[in-house]
Fold these 4 entries.
Entry 1:
Amino acid sequence: MFKLSTLCYIEKDGKYLMLHRTVKENDVNKDKWIGVGGHFEAQESPEECLVREVQEETGYTLTSYCYRGIVTFVYGEDVVEYMSLYTADGFKGDAIPCDEGELEWVDKEKVYELNIWEGDKIFFRLLEERRDFFSLKLVYDREATLLYAALDGKPMDSYSVNGAKVKE
């Protein structure tokens, strides 16, 4: 089974808006901190999905965003998700409660201290270091252990980015 989704990290004053996923029981992201976004609806473009999902989860209407990369997320034997990764630095509107968890502005440097996916550490570093578009493949087992990472089609070694560990 494969899925299409968007993931956005909204930036303001040196912070990212993070979502602590605490609500859904059968959620691959349960208790993790992630950006906002979600799955495509029929006939949506990545940008349409992005704008809709951000509005639904935060109350914000994006006014400035950038498509940063595509993340191929493989989880176990049967889940493959292609995530269009965005950052945004402009929005308007008032925050609303999120029905998927708690939203919190977190200092960019402190994001690494949260309960995030090991592979997220890789793309956070890429967001910090690179302005160009990238393709990142992350393969996890069912225990959420990162088994393999490839950047732009080339395998990454286990110490490539900010301490993210890839099982060798």
Entry 2:
Amino acid sequence: MKFSLLRNATLKLDILGRSVLIDPFFAAKGSRPSFTGRAPNPLVDLPVSPEKILEGVELVVVSHLHADHFDPVAQDLVPKHLPLICQPGDEDKIRSYGFSNVTPLTDVLVWQGIRFQRREGSHGLGSVVQKMGSVMGFVITAKDEPSLYWAGDTVLYPAVEATIVESRPDIIVIHPCGARWDGDLITMDAAEAVAICRLAPSAAVIATHMDSLDHATVSRDDLLKYARKQGVTSRQLLVPRDGEHLTLAAGQAG
């Protein structure tokens, strides 16, 4: 499996020779409103152009409709005929953007030999969840490929723990930027990232959604420093930079 981080949650996966784009966020640096008053978003530019990112893409996955996961630029540039997987309840809105091949991931979907299974997420805990709305994660499996759990915009809570215990993924992708909304934690932070590593010691844990939005409270450097102090190795916790490419295999963290 080949893994390419673009920016924030936007990444490309090459699985069974197929190219999958997840959560396209194509806005130019500083072109979106600030969340906290600290700076316009996103804080950085894409490492390559949206047109370059879209080269070869055969399937798009949109986890939820927050603008940092599927923004107006992406809604305009992503080819409307491409198959697109979304969470239940978002399909009509996405079709209103002109997309013609939209499928909600209600449970399990198999595309070109690649199996997607929807998993629950919680964009915070308590009353902030109503403000954030629903989100989803998913587990991807395919013959002769490592299994991957993309947790998405969620905090660590029992449903995430259950997914890891039940599916025993080779790779776990998390968003431990410590994003906060009105003071409430709405994504994982450094402590929860370390907890994930300890919960799944044989999995490679990849931290994305870092250093790109002004409501984040944990940087890549913060995460790495904290993880090292907690005894988590660089072999297990991977913190790629924007534009970085990884080749992933089962048992990589062992």
Entry 3:
Amino acid sequence: MKLYVLNTGYLETDKNNVVAGATVGTYSSPAVQNEWIKLPVMTFLIQTDDGYILYDTGSNPEAMNGYWPENLREIYPLYQKTEERLENQLKLCGVSPEDVKTVVISHLHLDHAGNLHLFPHADVYVPKADFMHGQTQVRLNPDPKTHGGYIKADMDVSVKQYHLVEEDFTLAPGIEVINLPGHTPGLLGLVVHLESKTVILPQDCIYTKEIFGPPAKASGLLYDNIAYFKSIEKVRKLQQKYDAEIIFAHDYEFFQTLKTAPDYYE
């Protein structure tokens, strides 16, 4: 089994959106300088004996050309080179979108479900709670500024079959799907048991190494803060159980230490 880390560009944002209270004014220093940071956008390709599994699809390449509403373009601008488009990252691995028959979406936010349209032929596994929430959010009214982190065009994609996940399960030999709600109503992480090591992919359950701690820190964007901290501790227990490596979802410094496609882990 091989695990490819696909580099699909990066976002920028105020650090307070990532780590809650990262910069806070005080009585003595009421005016603070906020920190503007980079957030890598990674997707993951897993090559198994039975075919390819893609975990997340990154951001739509037309995001900054009007595909995302203006408020999201201002808060989370996307920077993506042509070679960082998902189909070109897959090409580095000798794979086309048509070769991928199984897709797992951690959650349906704009930087994770933006290229689902490339996989109309695939079985797509999504967290049921987040799928239902996102579908509702984008249909309450036509104003995209009220849709949160969901993009209606992403939610309207037809695929071979959506599988709505509520419980942990084994997707393929050596690949566990785990539920990690909190950041959104539902979120799916992966535990990948490679020959050399076990890797945990928690995506936005754990943005950065700083958030993981210990002690764990709150994210700037939380749907359910109690579930969020429980999910982080679930990952911590799995890390200890398997002596696993965690790939933090949006940690730019950590990202610099990873091997990216066409290199891989096995």
Entry 4:
Amino acid sequence: MDNNNCYHCGDDCGKKPIIWDKQQFCCDGCKTVYEIFQKNDLSHYYEIRAAAGASSKEAEGKYDFLAVPDIVEKLLEFNEDRLQIVNLYIPHIHCSSCIWILENLNRLQPSVLNSQVDFPKKTVRITYKSDTFNLQQLVLLLARIGYEPYISLEDHDKGKKQINRDLIYKLGVAGFAFGNVMFLSFPEYLDMPRDGVGEYWLEEYKGLFRGLMFAFSLPVVFYAAQDYFISAYKGLRSKILNMDVPIALGIMVLFLRSSIEIMFNWGSGFFDSLTGLVFFLLIGKFFQQKTYAFLSFERDYKSYFPIAVTKIDENRNESSIQVYEIKAGDTLLIRNQELIPVDGILVSGKAKIDYSFVTGESQPTEKAIGDRIFAGGKQMYGAMEMKALKSVSQSYLTQLWSDAVFKESKSGKFQNITDRIGKRFTIAVLSIAFAATTFWIFHDPKMAINVLTAVLIIACPCAIALAAPFTLGNMLRIFGRKKLYLKDAQAIERLAQIDTAIFDKTGTLTSATKLQATYEGMVLTKEEESLLKNTLRASNHPLSRSLYALLAEHDIVTLDTYEEHVGKGIEAGAGDDKIRIGSAGFAGGDVVPKASDTAIHITANNDYKGCYVFNNHYREGLSDVFLSLSKHMQLVVLSGDNAGERSRLQAILPTETRLIFNQKPEQKLSVVRTLQALGKKVLMVGDGLNDAGALMQSHVGIAISEDINVFSPACDGILDASKFKELPRYMEAAKSAMKIINFSFMLSLMYNVVGLYFAVTGQLQPVIAAILMPLSSISIVAFTTLMTNRVGSKLD
């Protein structure tokens, strides 16, 4: 850095720099940020990023508009109870150091509670205390540390579609240099010409040619190949031998040796191999990037969530619509335990909203009619009606699903295997390279440099590292197309390891759309029927939804009280009337239906009335699903109902299936934990309502989606109910994906063993190694893509 440049931002300090801690700064802002870094042990930032900050002078006055409440409201994602959340697009995010500093904002500013970077989209989602810190101060802080956000009120989305073309530029520079170096090297490839004139011409100008080759190599080494050096340096600083270490070493050895050769007129060097190596490396990276972009798909609400929300039209008719069909001005019915899909205004009913999905705070917030409510909250007090203020935000539900607030670590072992293989392989390559070089120094010194660079280049573990992400990425896309929506690629790894499957009964094994009910007991009055209908309207339980659809229409009544007791039933009130709906024990029922039936008992104003008896309809293909799974794993059915269905299930399911009844949600969770304590890898399949604890605890939790909003962050996947019978095939596909990864590992190792043999024996030129190395990576990518597509075709 120049002597008069600011240590933090790199700007000219002028005639009166601020000196502090033996460093100079252009302004108090840069000095303050430096002090914060030092105080919080973040000074490593200056070592991993040169000229880290952006000038605070440039940001001065630029963001005064963020002091206007109306403008801030448009930018905020969440604004409630002295807590605000904003998602900012930051074009300067480009490497791990960027992620590191942005996710440590809470150490720079105590008012920042949490910050999460989405690296592919170059965004950071920041939660902060709005009573001690505001959006303008946050943006200025980001600008001062070098990460000025892009903010456009008129065309915000357009700004987020900017494309990073760095790789294309680097590829162009490397390709241009490689072509010219090959052209300049051509006369020496043909050896010295025989005629005197030609020989004189070459001898006279070879210094110029070699100088030009050196000049062409400079932008290749210091620009096009800089990512490899940066990655290797950061890895070594962290005492990690990553896959870029041998590549960076090979490039540097070629460059230094070639420069020395032309400097002392020993020869023309290896500039053709050097520029060719970087060019073909970047071609491989470009191909990988394009292929992965093709395999990946926008992880938004349209792709992931087969969920619906109830819309109320002008005639008060209720109908289910997909969340992406919501428009500003629509009236939506949000039931108990349902997620609020969009920002809106409460227009009817009472609201007690749990925003823990968004903020991590579990204390529900009560709302009155006219209050604003935010997307991501969960209604905890019966039914309410809201007026939508906007459509569903792109990828918002996916963001909630993956949020670390409620995300429990379920590490996948194959990623760890990849890391371990990459580290050990790098150590092995470096050892072989230096051992082979030492051997050739004593036997034929001219061959030593060729052997060293050929070994370092050909034996790169890139292909090994690519096997898992490309296989799992493509399988994630295929599963989504087949209506199994998984949270992340690691869920596929865990799904392949399952040896025990647990199924909830009601709403999972049974189909709510085919249930029929008959009433047994005293006739309900019109007022009691109305209260029953409105109480059921507020519930999201499968039996409640089924009975609600079967009852006659009644006027909508706002409930004064509502409480849903998980696994037991509901109690509600309107005016002086009270009602209890649920199990016999909860409602105080004395009518005993047939043992094989499921019943909802009703007590009105402390008088038991009777019960609605349901005849369970099990899902199509249930027997085949259990028969197929029983060949490879232990099966368990958990039910909150009584044991009346035991004989019927025993007739349908394999004899070794365990049937456990009268299970409360906490007991289901206990069963999962008990099996895991025995070393079992547990799959939990539930309806996403009463099974949240078991879904979260299990190795893989899958929620079955029918025609209601079953969104639950506790689950690892959502399976469309129409695809329930395909579950065994999905699990087999996950195992096939793991076999593809293992085979890819072996294929890559075979590539490297063969390549190392020719490199160590001196039979492989560096430029040939430079061509073969990315080809091996490309072949692995092609292999995993073709094989996973083949597995996917079997799911059709």
